Amino acid sequence: MVPVAAPVDDPPGCEPLAHGEDIAAHSHDFGQLRYAASGALVTATRGGTWVAPANRINWVPAFHVHSSRSHGRTDVRLLRVPAHLAERLPAEPAVFAASALLREAFLALVDDHDPPDSPRARLLLDVVVTELGRAPQEPLRLPEPVDPRLKAVTDLLHADPATPATLTQLGRRTGAGERTLSRLFSRELAMSFHQWRTLLRVQRALLELADGTPVSDTALRLGWANPSSFIDAFTPLVGQTPGRYQAAARTTP
Q: Where is each HTH araC/xylS-type domain found (predicted)?
């Protein structure tokens, strides 16, 4: 789901998105914060893919082409960020963990419909941007390839993250040699085949856990041999165990 065009803005009204609903590739001339009050939002740009469950806030800077897909019934809230405040946020798309203060200030801004130039709106927006500056930034950006040989392999993995196929076996299916593909992973994505597939699986695990799927079932559904190996892969990347992550997701309103 890598964006290739910029035809439209986000749909008006912010009606909840059905599971698997797509928002076509587009960009804005302003920065935008996106929060899934329920469900989860998967955002793709040319630079990679980000997953934002209901306890995360996604930042998209101005002029970055992006597309989105909902996971579960997803209630997305959108917030414009003016240029003078956007300068305090990253120059690239990012996903942040949302503290209670950050989440409540964000929702108050969106739900109360105060005029953007009102003192209260300006104060709340400054709180949001200040809290984002303190919030942990999600490290789980999944880089996406451009080379068609490598993209053929990553497309297969996106379709079936749990596949146990080796790089050699995937290369046979796509008509590319294992050595060539290994070099492409290193040169274009700055990681190995194993690292990329693990990162893909962990991204999908965030969605499974946010849905309430038990840790053991998530591990087996996504290709790990047992829950322990899943925990060992998940914890260093996310910064907490799958169980703690799921518990935090359950307490998010």
A: 151-248
14 exposure class (CB count in 10 Å sphere: 0-12, 13-18, 19+): middle
List the structure tokens of 88. Answer: 């305090």
> Which residues fall within 8 angstroms of residue 116, CB to CB, at 6 or more apart?
80, 122, 125
All structural domains of the chain, each given as residue ranges with its CATH number in brackets, are 12-134 (2.60.120.280), 148-250 (1.10.10.60)
**Tokens 């165990």 -> residue:** 241
Question: In this structure, what token pair is assigned to residue 251?
Answer: 């307490």
Backbone angles phi, psi at 25, to 5 degrees: -60, 135
Q: Over the range 91-119, which residues count as b (16 or more CB within 10 Å of their CB) and which as e?
A: eebbbbbbbeebbebbbebbeeebeeeee
Task: Answer left, alpha or beta for residue 63, where phi above 0 means left and psi between -120 and 50 means alpha.
Answer: left
Q: Which helix (H) or strand (E) holds 81?
A: strand 66-81
The confidence band for 10, taking pLDDT boundaries of 50, 70 and 90, is low
pTM: 0.75
**Measured distance CA(139)–CA(124) in Å, rounded:** 26
Q: Structure tokens of 133?
A: 């500056």
CA dist., res. 27 & res. 65, Å (int): 4
SS3 of 27, please? coil
Here the tokens at position 112 are 């109360």
CB atoms within 10 A of CB 249: 18
Could you tell me which residues come within 8 angstroms of residue 13 by beta carbon, excluding any fewer than 6 positions away?
none
69 vs 23, 42, 88, 106, 161, CA distance in Å? 6, 5, 27, 21, 17
